[in-house]
Structures are given as structure tokens and as C-alpha cells.
Design a protein that fits this description.
By secondary structure, the protein is of the alpha/beta class. It has 5 domains: 197 residues, Rossmann fold (3-Layer(aba) Sandwich), CATH 3.40.50.1460; 47 residues, no CATH class; 75 residues, Muramoyl-pentapeptide Carboxypeptidase, domain 1 (Orthogonal Bundle); 62 residues, no CATH class; 81 residues, Muramoyl-pentapeptide Carboxypeptidase, domain 1. The chain is built from 20 helices and 10 strands. The strands form 2 sheets. It has a 6-stranded mixed beta sheet, with helices on both faces. A 4-stranded antiparallel beta sheet has the order 6-5-4-8. Helix 10 crosses helix 12. The longest helix has 39 residues. The radius of gyration is 54 Å and the shape is elongated. The N terminus is likely disordered.
Amino acid sequence: MRILLTALTLTILPLAAAAQDAALLLGNDRYDSLGRVSGAGNMIEAEDGLQDLGFEVAAVRNGRASQISSELDDFADRAGDADQLVVGLAGRFVTDGTRTWFLLTDAAYPTLFGMDASAVSVDALLTVLGSKPGRAVLVLAGDGGDDDYGPFLREGIGDLAIPQGVTVISGPIRATTAFARGELVDEGADLVEAALDRDLTLAGYLPARLVLVPGEVEAAQPAAPAGPDPAADARGWQVAQRADNAAGYRAYLEAFPNGRNVSEAQDRLEAILAEPNRADRLAEEGLNLTRAERRQIQENLTVLDFNTRGIDGIFGPGTRTAVTNWQQQNGYPQTSYLNREQIARLAGQASRRRSEIAAAERARQEEEARADRAFWDETGARGDAAGYRAYLERFPDGIYSEIAQDNLDAIEEERRAEAAAQDRTAWDRARTADTEAAYVTYLRDFPEGAFRTEAQAALALIREPQGPSEAEVDEARQAERRLQLNPITTRLVEAKLADFGMNPGRVDGDFDQNTRQAIRAYQERRGLPATGYLSEATVVRLLADSINDLQGN
């Protein structure tokens, strides 16, 4: 015996005899150019069940643009008089993240600005369904996929803008079409519970119970007690928690304004509204990504030219911005948080991009190698220093760079040996001539020659002023004898020379070679004729210097 439906059970009441509910079923499993979609045609098998429930059904399998256009217009016209609306789509979907299209069998490769009559706008269908709030159901069956349709489209269902009061049930083709053929057309079946049992995704309007056509009821059942039924309240709260979104918590609060979980539902609803992408954040956190996995995601984004501002395994503002930009270009809601599907898609794109980069690098290297060999043939292959230098300047790390450098080193070593031999010969000529002109010529021809120091010294020696002549020296010797210096005076002279640092040797009054050199040095310092013999002027100056030294002058 069926139980009596209480006021807490939200049902979609059947239309009066004067009007029929409207349903549209499209199932495409054979596409002209986009490949087969196994099982999508099974959506059509819900036609009979819906007709038994009182729906006027338009069902088309593998529809083409020319035939579907009129069916869509007819459905929109019938929706105005219908009490309930049901739409079921199974096949290929494409999205830019916020808009979604259902592709018909004659659809060509889709592009962002190329959507035509062979692509049905799911958003337009939602607009029609929104005209019956609380009495409209959209069932979407699609397996998604890895196909990219340009930089802004991807295969799959995007983030739908669901009007108030529309319930959307979606999931993989096999499970969703089974739901459409089963519980959807089962009189009295709770569609929310059935969808949850099949692990389908619920969105939009989510009452505690959703029944297209209620089963038979017994009028003799006692009236429902005042206040919310605890069992219904618990069931409604379970549905809201499983949905864990704003629509789910709103539905609970509307159905159970005095329920046991109203306070928590309000808190969760406020948290969701304060953080629009809360569910996406929680989903990403639930993945428990390791630091290494986060670094890999950052590397993949970077490879695809989305700047994460570092690859450190920390998802900061730079990474979140990169994720958002990647989602925008791949037709996902721009939440900045990733799920498993997106991570896998990102990895696939990065792997493909790495292969493209590697292929481009190989092509670049091959082209550079061809240019390298061609340039070698025109330069280094000729075997001269100029050719080797030209090649090394253009290709310092080229294919033949080691050969070019070795050969150039050998040539330069030969030239150095030859230059050294010429240097030696020129120096020998200069030494043999031993003249100022000869040394000047050597320094002019070999300014950096091996013997430039010797040449400069010899030239300086030649250019030094000449000392006294032999006659001048003999005259100085005679002048010293005429002074008739006694031993005391000569020792005093030696002592004074020693005091002045002239190194006269032993102070003994005997003027030996050391004394003569000291006298000559003193004479040169004082600007006197440097003969090495004492003259009256030398003695006077020496004694004067001694007196000045004693007086501190």
C-alpha cells in the first residue's frame, strides 16, 4: 500500500485534462564528423514512459539541424500551455565555461564564433524551462572528453546559469539514460533520491522530494501532524548536504522553515554566498595535492605560457591568476581552483606542448646545423686564419669550432715562432752595430720585442753624458797632491764621506778604490767635476757640509 503524501512532499501535479505536459528528448549516438557516442540514443527510450505519464513528447534520435529546428520551436510553443516540462539530451556537448551547446549529428568542428543551427543552446532551453518554476526538469547525459575546440572551447557541460525553480540532473551517458528510462518515468518516483542513488549530479531547484506524477493515495489516512515531519526534515537536510551548494540549502530552508537544521543551513548558505567558489575550493582541498604535485601543476601552467610567478608548490595569487586564465581559455568556470578532470587536461596539454617545443627545438637545431655546415664551407674549409676567425665569430660553439680553434692556434704558433726568429735576428744586428741608430731601429721595428728592455738600457747608456777625460783625471790627481793632505785630514775626509752615506770603505787615511768611488759620488751629488780626486773646492764643500750638519742646518 502506498503511503499518503503529506504537505511536506513537493510534487509536480499533473495537468488538467485540457492541457498536456511537454517533453523533448534528443539522443545522438552517430555524428557525421565527430565520431560515435555509445549509448546516447537510449535517451529516446524514455518516450513511451513519459507519454504514459501524460506528456506530449517530441523524441528525435540522431537529429540534424534541418529537422531539430522545428521541433525546438514547437516545444517552446507548447511550453506556454504545459504544466510540467521535461527535456532530455544525450550526446556531445561543448562549452566555453559559461555557455553550453548540444551538438547535432551534422555538426562540424565547433568554433567559438561558428555555432550555427547544428548546435542547440542549452542556455536557451533553460530559459524555456524557467517559465515553469518548480515544475521543470533538464536531464543531460554526456561523457565529456579530452577534445579541445580551439583555445576557448572544450567538450563537456559548462557552469550552467540555471533559472529559479529548474532542476538539472546530469551525469555519464550510461547512468543518466538509465535514469531517464527508469525512475524519470516511474509514477510516484522521487527523482532527487533516484538521482542521488545513481551518483548523478543535481543542481538548481532541489526540494526534499521531486515527483513528476504521484502514485495513488489513500484518503483514509490520518492527517499529518502539525510541524515538520522529522523523517522528511532529515531527508531534506541529507539532500542539501549532498548538494552542498546555495540552491540545496535554499531549497531546504524553503521546505523546512522551522526545521531542525535551519540555523546550520543559514550559516552554510551565508558562507557560500560570501565565497562564491567555496565548493570548488573544498573540492581542490579534498584532492590533498602534495607539494610535488602542486609544483608539477605550476610547471604545466608555465609551459603553456601562464605565468605562476614561481614554481614552488605554493598556490599563491600568481598561480591562482594563472589557473583562472587557463580555465577561461579552456571553457571552464573561472574559479581559480582545480579538480581532477582539469588537472588531467592541463597535464595533457602541457605534455603536448612539451612535445611541440621539443620538435621545434630539433627543427631549429637541424636548421642551425645546416647553416653551420654551409658557413664552414665558405670560411673555415678554406684553411686560412681569416676563415677560421670568421667561422668562430659566427659559430663560437659550432660543429667545427674545435677544429677551427686548433688550426688557428697552430697558425698563430707558427707566426709567433717566425716573429721570434725575426726578433732575434734584428737584435743580433743591433748588438753588433752597438750604435744609437741601431737600437732605435730595433725598438721601432719590434716595440714589443723580446729584447726591448736590453735595447732601451743600451740606448740610455749611449745617451748618458760622458765622464771626465783622461787628461782631466790626471790634472785632478796632480791638484790633490798639491793640497799636501796629511793622514789626519784624509781620515777626516773618509769619516765625513761615511757620515754622508758614500761608503768610502775603511777609515784609515788610505784613499783606495772605495774611497775614490765615494769621492766621485759626493762630487756628482754636489755638482762638482766628478774625478774621484779631492780638489780645493771639494774639500771646502765637504767641510762646509760638515759644519752645517753640526749646526743642524
